[in-house]
Amino acid sequence: MSSSRGAASARLRSIPSPFAVATTMTAPSRPDRIEDPFVAGLQRARTAVGIVATVWLLMAYPLAEGREQFVMGKVEDLLIGSGLTLAVGLVAVTAFIATARSPLGRRYAARLTGPLSSLGAIALGAGAAWLMVMMLKGDIISTADVGYHGILIGLLVGALFIIGGLVCALLLLFALLFTLVALVQGLNSCFRLGDVHELLPALISPLLVWSLFVLGLFDGPDVAAPPVVLYTFLLGGPVSVTALSAWEVRRLRTHHGVTLRGALGR
């Protein structure tokens, strides 16, 4: 009995979590990509500080609106940020490839499979979530579509629909978590643009965060905090990201010999 329970728990542990799958599909993974552990550590530290600051702000001051409005606002910010990243990244990659001398342009174009797979993962998760919602609502198939064929058949169909509903609910939860993590990870990695070239995320990130800062100025504050606290909090993200990006570009040049001129073959 204990061995069967152990085997069952081992099988459950072997099921990949949506967090692990989303991270794998949206994190840069080019084998020969330059990875600087010190820069990665600073990026994680900046993210942790940002999370701690956000939690402190929410704990120290009351919400300006209700919790539901706050959550929906953050989801909207995430979608806007992803859209901006996609738009800026598309323009930047196109310009980067177009201005790179041969054969670098073709090499960079061949590396677009990383960003495309990241976008495909997000689209797949969102599509799966939408499909599960349609299934649960009965828009695709319902008991009315099966009809009545006697008590036994009706009980069997009812049991199948209950089991199917539970499966769809679990798949919906997986798809929602996967899509959320993929969006966050994709936003942090600029949708794997580091797979095209190491400089692209560092060059694009400041433009992205300052664009979000400008948009945030037109939105109402999330919490009822003094203006000095709100503007300090709003400026903290763009300033820290810009400083870290500038330092990353400098470190790529001084420690790894990576420059924009060299990346373009000029």
Automatic annotation (TrEMBL):
This is Uncharacterized protein. Keywords: Membrane, Transmembrane, Transmembrane helix. The chain crosses the membrane at residues 47-64, 79-100, 112-131, 151-184, 196-218, 224-247. The lineage of its organism: Bacteria, Bacillati, Actinomycetota, Actinomycetes, Kitasatosporales.
